[in-house]
Specification:
Shape: globular
CATH topology: Aminopeptidase
Number of helices: 5
Largest sheet: 3 strands, antiparallel
Radius of gyration: 15 Å
Order of helices and strands: HHHEEEHEHEE
Strand content: 25-35%
Length: 150
Amino acid sequence: MLPFAKITTNPEVMKYIGMGGLWGVPQATEVVTKRIKQGSERGYCMWAVELIETGALIGHCGVQWLGDTGEIEIGWMLDRPHWGKGLATEAAKAVLAYAMGDLGFKRIVAITHAENRASSKIMEKIGMHYEKTIEWKGLEGILFYVIETL
């Protein structure tokens, strides 16, 4: 099985990703293929997050377009055994520095379900601030965070 699909078939991991559904092998393969294409065309996408010690895939982190909003979104997802170790924060800080430095983005946003306090805390740790609560793809109570350079 595709290592990414092992992560995306875990209900705990996927609870707050998109609409909360699981991604099987076909969807996970499609997502990886799309991200490789985006990275090649744009120079950014959701990149693989691997453990330094073993090279094992443990999730993803990166930037991408946030639907039709015109905003650039930072996002992350880690496999359950790697939660609570600061790895998502470490990855998000590195991505944010690259996106705002090398890529030159002046504004980056992030969204999360209001119940997903772990992601909200990461957003705050990397310097983002809460801007508003929105409806996203029919879901109410989605928190919208932002960071901007002057």
